[in-house]
Amino acid sequence: MTKILVVDDEPHILDVVRYALEREGFAVDTARHGKAALEIMGRDPAELVILDILMPELDGLSVCRTLRKRSQVPVIFLTSRADEVDRVVGLELGGDDYVTKPFSPRELVSRVRAVLRRTRAAAVPGQPTAPDDIRYGEIEIDVERHAVRVAGAAVALTVTEFNLLRALLERPGRVLSRDQLIDRAYAFDNHVTERTIDTHVRRIRAKLRELGSDPIETVHGVGYRAREVP
Fold it and tell me: What is the DSSP pairing of strand 216-219 with strand 223-226?
């Protein structure tokens, strides 16, 4: 049974989300503040975290930042503000998706299932339509192990980031529109926006640049491509 941790300082939200998820067959842990969430994840990690952004003591962005130092567990943010800045900052820190309050429990469950599908698809070994390895200069992508290295150094990517990088490096020189990247990286999720793609690509590029690699370029008005292999 898939375990999900729900973190929110509002008891009503916790009750609603717990009920919706348990009704769909998920096991649910809850926490009312960030410190408790980190303690739970250290003791008995969940497979996905639903994380409120605005909380006392330790906010959701800080929790996500700490989690990303430990693992690439999928994170879905909850935000009570419609401000796009909240969403973009959350994705920049490594969040996989976001839901704005007030939300439909059915929509949240749909987002959870979509993120878990992406996670599990990335972890399935030996997919027949994909090569075991993708090599691009000093970058190596091991599809079976869901691992990326640059000149031998490991790069920590979320599931979404991994899928996007893989889509771009599979065919260097080919331009992929944002809609095509949504189809390739998200598959079953129709909630993704073009701005979300931009945020994830920016984060991938920042991680690769730290290791001296910059394979992705923006094709203004169209999308992105990996440069031709040098």
Answer: antiparallel
